[in-house]
Amino acid sequence: MTLEKFFNPESVAVIGATEDPKNITSTIITNLIEMGFAGKLVPVNPHHDEVFGLKCYPSLPDIKEQVDLTVISIHSDYVPEVLEQQAVCGIRNSIIISGGFAELGGKGVELEERIKNICRDKDIRLIGPNCIGVLDNYSNFSTSFLPWTKVKRPEKGTLGILSQSGSYVVAMMDMLSLEGIGVSKVVSYGNRADVGESELIEYLTNDELTHVIGIYMESVDDGRRFINASSNFSKSKHIVALKAGRHDSGIEAAKSHTGAIAGRYEIYKAAFRKSGIVEVNGLEEFMDACKVLLMQKPAKGNKVLVLTNGGGFGVSVSDMCSDTGLDVAHTPAGIREALSEKFPEYFILKNPIDMTGSSGDEDYGIAMKSALVDNDFFDAAIIIPLMPPPTMTDGVAGIISQRAKESGKPVVICMVSGIYTEKIKAKFEEKGLPVFPSPERCVKAMSVLVERGRMNGC
Amino acid sequence: MTLEKFFNPESVAVIGATEDPKNITSTIITNLIEMGFAGKLVPVNPHHDEVFGLKCYPSLPDIKEQVDLTVISIHSDYVPEVLEQQAVCGIRNSIIISGGFAELGGKGVELEERIKNICRDKDIRLIGPNCIGVLDNYSNFSTSFLPWTKVKRPEKGTLGILSQSGSYVVAMMDMLSLEGIGVSKVVSYGNRADVGESELIEYLTNDELTHVIGIYMESVDDGRRFINASSNFSKSKHIVALKAGRHDSGIEAAKSHTGAIAGRYEIYKAAFRKSGIVEVNGLEEFMDACKVLLMQKPAKGNKVLVLTNGGGFGVSVSDMCSDTGLDVAHTPAGIREALSEKFPEYFILKNPIDMTGSSGDEDYGIAMKSALVDNDFFDAAIIIPLMPPPTMTDGVAGIISQRAKESGKPVVICMVSGIYTEKIKAKFEEKGLPVFPSPERCVKAMSVLVERGRMNGC
What pLDDT sits at residue B96? Predict the structure, then answer.
């Protein structure tokens, strides 16, 4: 059985649907209407005849048409009954938004076992409980109960997000919208009573619209299946993982959160390495790693050219490269000779190449031509064009991206945030070069490309 | 002799002044006019009678009034002559913007020795060469040659910035403006032929307008003097340091950049610890550490309350706290009892206190009252109010800041960036609570407060 109906259902029943803004079903339905979901939307609630202009049915058996999926956000105590009923109606998929299950311990664990058993016995596939559910950005289907006015829906794109945590999914969507990074599918599966990350990774392996998966995990559903699925996905695409619940206090917190047994962190690290997964440690790193893998290809080696007009940035980027295993190798004599003919003597050619505050747009093109296009010594480049000098204009984005393209090598840009600089950032990203707002984030992003290149080489 | 005239000169001669936009003196002068600098501005250039409406003098001896300071941005070869001349005129201070000295090696080193000797012999104090010079945000004096249209001038405030790197100073000003963090004085001293960080720290110790110093350093001018000055400053205020040139490639880059001999990093680390200096590793950390020390006081211990409505954030913040030596200690029974009377059973009270997506503004007030105001167990709090749930409104900023104030303990806020959330961020900061855009940056900022608290305790 495929997971297709979770993402692109032809008909969806929303259990307990109401227009009451305090009830989250109201936001789920208005979100779907606003998104232009083309499938059939069927509210189910014995107390209403109509919800947001849609005919409302008293119960599932009253619906005559085939329903692909139920969305359940009623009190946990009533969930088993709905599942039993949908089994009778032949509805084979369910997303349970409601909390009140294993994450509470005690009786909640029992209740979760009960719904698991029903689903297993009656052949129902389940996402959740205690989750936000899905967003399919192409079928315009979502079960998010957070209004798109407060969390901006990301653009259509090729990033898939999988998460045990609902709040991470929401935060990611909001950040990605602000960054202009497009998303294909998002799944928050919460307590993961049935469908988990391994099966979702298998499913997304064949999804042409998903090129990179970012995954937030507190625990793994099935270690062996996860490694197999990830290894297979990573052959042609990329996975970035944020493992939460690494230390004692985080492990405890994870247990209260989604009932997850976080397990030994070292085992996760080894599994990630084995599966070609890039591990990250924070939310910004998570987003940056996904972004750089979406926009640039892995590096063939770790020799990195650092090119800037700001000496201090050259120095600190060199430090950070050393911290992350990137080699700011000396510029070979051939490149230095070529450049010394074109540049004034006070430009520093050693690598970092520091063209000083006197340089302008064209100098970036000259340096990249000799050091990156005409010569194969460097595997990649970190470029830090500081915009304040009057000699620097927004034309630099075109020049740098042109040379990056000619070189065929991965290039990342560091632009330190300022009101003026923000505009230039957009110009780079329009041309496909990822921009990061600090030297540390830019270096970390490059190290992701080098790490992925190394894995591919193995 | 004091450094006062570098920051608040009554009369300044700009050597080589011209209206030619390609010459940086033109920006220095237009910047000063735009800032409303109240001192006398005297252009010096034999080729002009007037520059930007100001009377221009052929040479320094032609000026009849007392001049406090020269600003020199001519070719390095001509600098010694100007210094000799200003000595004759009794002008005792000079800021040399020009590069072309020790950073080039060889003859540049000799030239720098020559200007050092002149200054020593003729009793001239010198900032630079190869620098941006100063910004005094209260006297409205600056020697920056970058137009304020491209680098936004920060608001008036209490952060001082000292730097060997000009580009870091510029980047910091731009970022600080965007963040709304106010600045008192900025000094970029480049090759540091005379005035260096130790003397500047001594000077700023008595500057009531400077509460925190952020310092970018590749090398130190005088180790013993630096430790003494920093220790003294840190008794009542705070210093944050970014040491660049930590590893081989960075050390080499530093030498080419400002002629600095970066020295062994371990020695710097020890000196920082000894002097009460908070060390940071990147530009965002640099800004965040300055910000948190400007807005909050050090923590008395490392027991940190983590309060959120997003379980995943609770988990990953707990991990990050462990990474940085913060103790997410179990909530004591007394607090748990008090809260369990007020909260539904599915709120998790263990610490992190996870009030789930169902909680609203008022719940933050209730939790903080019991856990932070009425009880002295926790030393500080990291609060992560995720705004997407409909129960959350901008009123939460007032509630949280009120309780933070009552508790007398340091509190930091994590708000993950999104278009809607940005507006709420401003509300928190108006009320004096620093907001950081990711869990990792928020935890790091709290660890700075704990580190400073520990140092003070020693």
Answer: 98
CA distances from residue A4 to A73, A118, A123, A162, B330 in whole angstroms, order as listed: 21, 21, 16, 16, 43
Which of B112, B151, B243, B316 best tests the A interface by mutation, with the highest count of A CBs <10 A?
B316
SS3 B14: strand
Which among A100, A170, A387 has the least Cβ separation from residue B346? A100
Provide CB contacts within 8 A for B322, sequence distance 6+: A246, A247, A248, A249, A250, B328
* pLDDT surpasses 70 at B101: yes
Can you tell me the distance from the alpha carbon of A415 to that of A392, in angstroms, rounded to the nearest whole number? 13
> Which chain A residues touch B174 with a CB distance below 8 Å?
388, 416-421
Domains of chain A: 1-129 (3.40.50.720), 151-295 (3.40.50.261), 297-457 (3.40.50.261)
Q: What are the pLDDT digits (tens) for A343-394?
A: 998 899 999 999 998 899 999 999 999 999 999 999 999 999 999 988 999 9
Q: How far is A368 from chain B (nearest CA, A)?
A: 19
Cross-chain Cβ contact A244/B167 below 8 Å? no
Distance from CA of B417 to the nearest CA of A (A): 6
Residue A25 burial (CB count, 10 A): 26
pLDDT at A25: 96
Predicted local confidence at residue B1, as pLDDT: 56
Rounded Cα–Cα distance for residues A136 and A126 (Å): 17
Q: How far apart, in whole angstroms, are the C-alpha atoms of residue A166 and residue A164?
A: 7
pLDDT of amino acid A1? 56
Does A216 sit within 8 Å of B250, measured CB to CB? no
Q: Which two tokens stand for residue B264?
A: 């062994």
Q: Say if residues A289 and A336 touch (Cβ distance below 8 Å).
A: no
Of the candidates B170, B257, B348, which has its C-beta nearest A315's C-beta?
Answer: B257
Q: Average pLDDT, stretch B119-139?
A: 97
Whole-angstrom distance, CA of residue A382 vs CA of residue A361: 16
Is there a contact between A253 and B99 if contact means CB atoms under 8 Å apart?
no
Chain A residue closest in CA terms to B168:
A312
* Of A122, A66, A134, residue with least CA distance to A95: A134
- Roughly what angle, to the nearest 10 degrees, separates helices B419-430 and B395-407? 40
Interval B42-87: pLDDT, tens: 999 999 999 999 999 999 999 999 999 999 999 999 999 999 999 9
Cα separation, B312 vs B329, in Å, equals 18
Contact B177, B135 (CB under 8 A): no
Q: Note whether B178 contacts A244, CB cutoff 8 Å.
A: no
CA distance linking residue A69 with residue A67, whole number of Å: 6
Residue A134, pLDDT above cutoff 90: yes
Mean pLDDT of B371-386: 98
Taking contacts as CB-CB distances below 8 angstroms, the residues of chain B near A178 are 417-419
- Position A158 scores a pLDDT of 98
What is the value of ipTM here, to two decimals? Answer: 0.93
Closest by CA position to A243, among listed A233, A254, A234: A254
Contact assignment for A247 to B416 by CB distance below 8 Å: no
CA distance B425 to B417: 9
Sign of the Cα pseudo-torsion (B151, B155, B156, B161, in order) = negative
Positive or negative CA dihedral for B80, B82, B84, B86?
A: negative
What pTM does this model have? 0.95
Q: Which residue has the tokens 């193995």?
A: A458
Contacts of B285 in chain A (CB under 8 A): 440
Among the partner residues B170, B257, B418, nearest to A178 by beta-carbon distance: B418
Q: What is residue B251's predicted lDDT score, i.e. its pLDDT?
A: 79
- Residue A263 class from Cβ within 10 Å (0-12 exposed, 13-18 middle, 19+ buried)? middle
